[in-house]
Write a structure and sequence with these properties.
By secondary structure, this protein is mainly alpha-helical. Helices cover 50% and strands 0% of the residues. It has helices spanning 24-33, 40-56, 62-73, 80-86, 91-98.
Length: 108
């Protein structure tokens, strides 16, 4: 997806309306809107979130995201400070948006 290409349809908060519209190029463009450049560490979290969503049909809020990350990727990455470093502000909300998932419940 080129930098000026239109993103797929999104809701008022910028979340994709249809998860099937997500791909790596869409993720890159969504991240750019958040002021982020995706690295392998970001993509690791995005793909972990997508796997979680396929199994549970919802995106985890922050506490659950930290726990999921700890269980999946280990204690060094399963910390709020690590996730905040990757996805500043509200890691669960920002990561879910970039991963093409719905907004997590109870997330600012």
């Amino acid at each position: 997806m080129k930098a000026n290409a239109a993103l797929p349809p999104r809701d008022a908060d910028g979340f994709l309306l249809d998860r099937a519209d997500w791909n790596e190029q869409v993720a890159t463009a969504l991240a750019r809107e958040e002021g982020l450049t995706l690295t392998p560490a970001h993509r690791e979290i995005l793909h972990m979130l997508q796997a979680y969503y396929r199994e549970h049909e919802h995106a985890p809020a922050m506490r659950a995201l930290v726990s999921l990350t700890r269980r999946t990727l280990g204690p060094d990455k399963g910390r709020s400070v690590y996730l905040l470093g990757l996805f500043p502000g509200s890691p669960a909300r920002v990561a879910a948006k970039i991963a093409g998932l719905p907004r997590p419940e109870h997330c600012l």
